[in-house]
């Protein structure tokens, strides 16, 4: 395995990581922003008010995008396991 293959494998791993984590991160970011705007407008400084909606949004996104995320990760793992013989020998 030469340096080019190592870099390509690392890039593929990072791309997969960003692709799989993006839906949850984006939804939690938007929900957090909306809750922050609501807190600023009403001057409510309650920690659970920002935490609970983010958790609920993350669970909903996992329920909706979970099968796609799992399929993507399984496909990446399959590709990595199939590439092992060529990397070793």
What's the overall geometry?
elongated
How many DSSP H or I helices?
2
Main beta sheet: none
Order of helices and strands: HH
Q: What is the mean pLDDT?
A: 92
Count of DSSP strands = 0
**N- to C-terminal separation?**
8 Å
The share of residues in helices is over 70%
Key phrases:
0% strand, mainly alpha, 92% helix, 89 residues, 2 helices, single chain
What's the gist of this structure?
This protein is mainly α. The protein has helices at residues 3-42, 47-88.
Task: Please provide a written account of the structure.
The chain is mainly alpha-helical. It has one domain (3-88). Helix content is 92%, strand content 0%. It has two helices and no strands. Helix 1 packs antiparallel against helix 2. 0% of the residues are buried. The mean pLDDT is 92.
